[in-house]
Amino acid sequence: QVQLVESGGGLVEPGGSLNVSCEASGSALIIYTMGWYRQAPGQQRELVATITSSRKTDYADSVKGRFTISRDDARNRVDLQMRDLKLDDSALYYCSAQSIVTNKYYWGQGTQVTVSS
């Protein structure tokens, strides 16, 4: 079973950039599709981006062209580079791992990203 720990959140001004990272342990990343989701107060958790073990990526329309997801299976790490951040990007960002064997999802505890002037 994989354990996920996010880091790198913080406060940034609109138009700024921020990177968040996810460190995985307990299992090799190669058997998981990795992703980032976010949840703002009073809203449902929503997909931000995913990346498969073959590096196929998928993004929410709201972040296309601004966010980039990447993975380093040798380091058991997944990163989300965010640029041109907007107020609506403020949320708790969660790292996810979906097993390609069982389809089960695993989640980290989240890291807060706040975009504010």
Structure description:
With 117 residues, the protein is an all-beta fold. The chain is 0% helix and 53% strand. The strands form 2 sheets. Strands 2, 4, 5, 6, 9, 10 and 11 form a 7-stranded mixed β-sheet that branches. A hairpin with a 5-residue loop joins β5 and β6. The chain starts with a strand and ends with a strand. The mean pLDDT is 96.
Radius of gyration, in Å, reads 13 Å
Low-confidence stretches: none
From N to C, what is the helix and strand string?
EEEEEEEEEEE
Calculate the terminal CA-CA distance, rounded to whole Å: 40 Å
Quaternary state, please? single chain
Q: In percent, how much strand structure appears in the residues?
A: over 45%
Helix content: under 10%
Largest sheet: 7 strands, mixed
Q: What would you call the shape?
A: globular
Number of helices: 0
What value does the average pLDDT take? 96
Number of strands: 11
Class from secondary-structure proportions: mainly beta
Quick overview of this protein structure:
The chain has no helices and 11 strands. The protein has strands at 3-7, 10-12, 18-25, 32-39, 46-51, 57-59, 67-72, 77-82, 91-99, 105-107, 111-115.
